[in-house]
Amino acid sequence: MSSFAGRMKEYPTVSLDRFDRENLLSRAYFLSHCHKDHMKGLKGPILKRKLEFSRTVRLYCSFVTKELLLSNPKYAFWEEYIVPLELESPTQISLVDETSGEKEDLVVTLLTAGHCPGSVMFLFEGSQGNVLYTGDFRLAAGDASRIEHLHSGSRVKDIQSIYLDSTFYDPRFYKIPTREVCLNGILELVGNWISQSPYHVVWLNCKAAYGYEYLFTNLGEEFNTQIHVRSLAMFKKMPEILSYVTTDRRTQIHACRHPKDEEFFQGSRLPCGCTASDGTPLRIISIKPSTMWFGERMRKTNVIIKTGASSYRACFSFHSSYSELKDFLSYLRPVNIYPSVIPIGRTLTEVTQIPQKTADEGETPDNDENFSLTLSASLSNHSSQNLDSCLPDTLILQPEQGGREQGDKRPSTVAQEESNDQKELSESQVSSDYDIPCTPESKTPRPDELSQLYRKLASGEDVIRKRD
């Protein structure tokens, strides 16, 4: 669940990615990107009234985020209150108390976050020290060393606090394949399928409204085609993306989405229809990009896994992996680390202590060499289920049990498939990377346990099992 309420301890008069409750009193607002779990309260009537009577309160974001936000009519009232800032261009902002006239100056710099179009990190520099808010981000190992504004000359700036996207700060996600690796697997799968006939189509079952543009542009470039989407509104001021998407369904690659209230009932059905314009039935495979699902697999898993007769999962992450987070923190060595997300199955105390320990050590553990990522064509257990033998698997080697962090004795687990009665997730968890809740203590039930469970269900008995 999310543990970030919108305020930083060092600069409590500004709010980031949260626009309700105590944040209504803030002197300035910052939006890191346009995913809904970071926009709570942004269209609230109280905040709207505050803006109408204020001369100084503004919302700061990137130019792309401004365009995405205003493409939704619900946020049109923000237009005169948004101040888009250039990337990597330090800007001084005055935070004014309109009642007392008290003023505080801050320098803010937007840094690329690598999460989705327009996503940024905010670096604040002021009287209370340098503070970095990452928002949601995905940086590869070593990327921090190449960000100019995190340095003063040749040395790393002193960072008082980092408010960290800790979505995957969990050893189960020690190494998540890079986007390039995931893309290569998807390209091979898509290419092998759509080359069979014009009636072989692919549906990218993308959960978030946007953020998958990296896939769209690369697929469009590779196969000289456009990706079918439901609306072009959010892309109209982004020509570098607009040329790769279309509302014409006569294409072989789709990323159209079901209406929200029909997603569960429609399953893997292509939202725009299952027949071609001439009435010929389409041969459809669906590919669902996700990460959390893969973290729950066995030690050996694949970048792409066939999960049904015509459905696949592709390991694709918008968030930094465990090892990438450790590299990031070890390089910057902040005084304080505040996690913005609590991974399912962990506590706030655990998530707070582990990154602090990493930053203090300033290095990765000696057993890091036990963690490896290997790519190859493989004859995995999943291959036997693959009816299209021409579509090879890509192998990931995740950490052996002995290679986990010292003190982390939880065994690797095999997750159950998504259930209809899964508990409601927090808003920060309901995103493209969360498909099922993680339960570190879960295990595969034995046949006798399943039989007993079915008997209880049939008789109407209570099947909630208390922990020992």
Structure description:
Among the domains are: 14-173 and 319-364, Metallo-beta-lactamase, Chain A (4-Layer Sandwich), CATH 3.60.15; 179-290, 3-Layer(aba) Sandwich (Rossmann fold). The protein is 20% helix and 20% strand. The chain has helices at residues 45-53, 63-70, 179-194, 213-223, 239-242, 263-266, 292-295, 322-332, 348-361, 447-459, and strands at 14-16, 28-30, 59-62, 82-85, 91-96, 103-112, 120-126, 129-133, 151-152, 155-156, 159-164, 200-204, 227-228, 245-246, 253-254, 283-290, 300-302, 304-306, 311-315, 336-339, 377-378, 393-397. The strands form 5 sheets. The chain has a 7-stranded mixed beta sheet with strand order 14-13-15-12-16-19-18. A 6-stranded mixed beta sheet has the order 5-6-7-8-11-20. Strands 1-2-3-4 form a 4-stranded parallel beta sheet. α8 packs across α9 (348-361). The relative contact order is 0.12. It is found in: Nucleus.
Keywords:
single chain; 468 residues; alpha/beta; Metallo-beta-lactamase, Chain A; Rossmann fold; seven-stranded mixed β-sheet; six-stranded mixed β-sheet; 10 helices; 20% helix; disordered C terminus
